[in-house]
Design a protein that fits this description.
Helices cover about 15% and strands about 20% of the residues. With about 375 residues, the chain is α/β, with parallel strands linked by helices.
Length: about 375
């Protein structure tokens, strides 16, 4: 149950990534394999054995200084269609809030979450405004709607061309789900998923794809944070290590590396994810916290932890979030905060009626490498 000591978690060879021959999603190729089936589109990609390629009978062509044309395009070189924001080289964010308007799945607080997170990043953490890509139903640009295609392209853009020293962030507020896993890379036997706006026709985004897109390619010196406010989101980035914290703030580290040896870490970068609940729990969309309008419980409590001065370490943030959610309905004190939490009062777009009793969700923290959550300083 405890995380291994230094030197005990580098037992796996570096991953080999190939693009699916059909949908171009990056896939991890098992060592020695000559073909792989895509979990997304189910196409089979065959890998040529270099030893089987006959030598060319043509005379060698003299080299020139002109670079050759690129081979088949990599998804990492594709920004979202339209005019993407500029990265400014250091800080970049994708914020996705989905309300599923006019459907039986409608949520009230997710777009509020997206607006508040954007406000936090700009005013507290100095993210340039044009380095934040917003995907919500409020966007007028069709390429900024949170469809499956646009979300995939946004995730590719997030990590495209990242350099040492860059700070990246992915925030998602919407529905999450889970489905049976059949390849043995999940400790609990289930893949966690995110539900795009068009998930009923286009399908969900599976944790394997999220991991392959924004986790495994991340180079050394780059930091990525994910804040996932969705049901069943505990390990939705498929990160190898989970911080299992109790109500007293004490924690143990769970090793979620699959027994198969499949690598789920990075290429040297750092990834840390806060999620709204455990893999078998639901995340609330409620007005019980803001007392004014609906928000995601996890997003609200994350922002409030920062505003109330609990943002020194990852452990202090996680403990504050869990305590606040546990206490909902248990006290009548004002839940208002500083500049960011008071912003919610500006988002008077309606909301659900607050309810009594505590919430059952427990925010989680996962990471690509083990660390002490109470000594590691938090920063975006």
């Amino acid at each position: 149950m405890y995380w291994p000591g230094p030197g005990m978690y580098y037992n796996y060879p570096p991953p080999i990534l190939v693009n699916c021959s059909s949908c171009r999603i990056p896939l991890q190729l098992p060592h020695g394999a000559r073909s792989i089936r895509c979990a997304i589109c189910h196409a089979i990609t065959n890998i040529a054995d270099p030893r089987s390629i006959p030598p060319s009978s043509q005379p060698p062509v003299p080299s020139t200084h002109t670079p050759p044309p690129p081979s088949s395009p990599s998804p990492y070189n594709h920004a979202p269609p339209g005019a993407p924001p500029h990265s400014h080289g250091k800080k970049r964010a994708v914020i996705c809030g989905i309300s599923y308007r006019y459907s039986m799945h409608e949520l009230k607080g997710c777009i509020n979450d997206a607006k508040c997170m954007r406000y936090l990043l700009i005013n507290k953490f100095k993210f340039p405004e044009d380095s934040i890509l917003m995907l919500t139903e409020d966007e007028t640009d069709p390429y900024r709607l949170p469809t499956k295609h646009n979300m995939r392209m946004a995730l590719y853009w997030l990590v495209q061309g990242c350099q040492p020293g860059d700070s990246l962030l992915f925030h998602y507020s919407g529905h999450g789900s889970r489905q049976r896993n059949y390849n043995g890379d999940e400790v609990d036997g289930y893949d966690e998923t995110l539900c795009p706006l068009d998930f009923e026709t286009q399908g969900m985004i599976v944790d394997d794809e999220i991991n392959a897109t924004i986790v495994r390619p991340l180079p050394r010196g780059v930091k990525l944070h994910a804040i996932i406010d969705a049901c069943h989101s505990g390990t939705v980035l498929d990160l190898p290590f989970l911080c299992r914290m109790n109500r007293f703030g004490q924690y143990v580290r769970e090793d979620h590396r699959p027994a198969s040896g499949l690598w789920k870490g990075t290429s040297g970068g750092e990834v840390i994810s806060f999620s709204g609940c455990d893999d078998d729990q639901a995340s609330a969309d409620t007005s019980a916290l803001s007392k004014i309008t609906s928000t995601g419980a996890m997003t609200f409590c994350f922002i409030q932890a920062i505003e109330r001065g609990y943002g020194a370490t990852y452990g202090s943030i996680l403990n504050s979030m869990r305590n606040e959610i546990r206490s909902v309905g248990g006290r009548a004190s004002d839940l208002g905060g500083g500049a960011v939490t008071s912003l919610i009062t500006m988002l008077l777009t309606g909301g659900s009626v607050g309810f009594g009793g505590g919430l059952s969700q427990e925010p989680q923290l996962t990471a690509c490498e083990p660390f002490d959550v109470y000594t590691r300083p938090f920063s975006f």
